[in-house]
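Question thread 4412

I'm putting together a teaching handout and wanted feedback from people who do this every day. The idea is simple: show students a protein as raw sequence, then show them the structure tokens that encode its fold, then repeat with a second protein so they can compare. Below is the first pair exactly as I plan to print it.
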Amino acid sequence: MTEALRFLFGGRARRRWIHLILGGALAMPYVLVGSVIVGPFTGVNDVFASLPLQLGSFAVGLPIAAVTSLFPLTRPLESGAARALCGVGADALARGPARTRAERGRTAAWFTLHLGLGGIISGMSLAVPPFAVVLIVLPLFASLRDRPLGLPESLDHPWALALSPIAGLAMLLTLAACAAACGALLARWAPALLGPTPEDRLAAAEARAADLAVRNRLARELHDSVGHALSAVTLQASAARRVLDTDPEFVREALAAIEDTTRRTVGELDAVLGVLRDGDTPGTAPAPTLAADLDGLLRRTRAGGQRVTATVDADPAALPPLVSREAYRIVQEGLSNALKHAGEPVGLRISTADGHLEITVENPLDTCPAPRPGGGHGLRGIADRVRLLGGTSQAGASDGAWRLHVRLPLKGST
């Protein structure tokens, strides 16, 4: 019972009723145009004095409404009204004008359906309530039974007077049921007639995927560059503080490394944030590569007191630019993980074999400190970079050491 009352008189039903009344109001100009056509055709001057002629004018006006619905603004306006009043989800309706013939046809069908059902419900909403109220109060007012309103003589019988309030209530319930059913029908058909086509959905999905890919790439860049810089600066500052009074030369080297690290990171951060700012041009700081900054990366890492042994059996300058750039980030993240979580010494090996660039970062497990809270995105970022280049990556414990091993294909990486 509660569900039935909510379906007939709930907030959603009332909004859909308003949507139908709006359709009836939009139908009125077309009904007037139809009456101009029906009147001379039937030879009747007052078309609105006859219900059949009114319905004929309404039927003639609907095709005219279908033609005018081809204007570009019709679809966005109808979609907005259906979204606000019919309770249809925003993603289920298109926002732009109809572009193809099929979309224009569906828009015309929706507009005709909206105005047709809206005109019927509007007419019923104007005519039914006053007559129903008269039937409800008819037994209480004898003056109404003198037929000033043109009521039929059958209502003078006692049984008719007893049933007239019930009939009035039934008419009101029937009106509410018709309005609720028509509103539900429009809400059901709105996604099919006003919704985006499969091509539109595919284009939107591709746009979202492209946007997500850009966001993921920027997130990886920020994590790798800024995360590594903060880890390195923290370790360098901590090491410098411990030997401040005993090894001034080491302190100077650590401070110089901190300065170099922060300067480079600010440049990289500006380049990444430039992409995020609407209307701004991206920063001009070049993306670091193995050929340009491998030695600097190792120097800044060692400046914090971390023992790093590096074996490079490849020519960084001969690597494809994309591989060199992504390999730099992978090495940077591997060393960053070693700074935060690993023991000493850290071994780095870069070599080429079978048309692949191989990167290995390992450290002994028995000297690993307790894990620090937070993090957890570094290895995922490495896996994403490797997958985009068509390579493979492995990370985990092996033979008493923690090892990160990456293989990147050199051919086709342009």
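The second pair follows. I'd like the answer to focus on this one:
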Amino acid sequence: MDKFPKGAILPSEQGSTYTTKEFFEVARKKNVIRSMSRMGTPSDNAPIELFHSSLKSETFYINKEPIGSNNIVIDSVENYITFWNNKRVLTKLGHLSPVDYRKKMT
């Protein structure tokens, strides 16, 4: 993936892959903000973990067919993000989608 929106945030754990100098440089060159939980505090990234859990359970886990290509995964994730932001209502947002909630608050 070569195109990232300005200010894109990459949540990750503190594993060796994500803490290498090489990974840091790639993220910096692509203007991606790295976000990690503090050591021993996995709740720091709880919002994105909830999103990932919903994404997997509402898309990939309900499919009986194996995923055939990276393009299918990319399309599924992009479609789900659009759905999540624009259509999926959340109780904590007064039964509004995130986009509708933001519009109402401004």
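Top answer:
Good format. For the second protein you could add a caption like this: The chain is about 45% helix and 10% strand. The chain has a mean pLDDT of 85.
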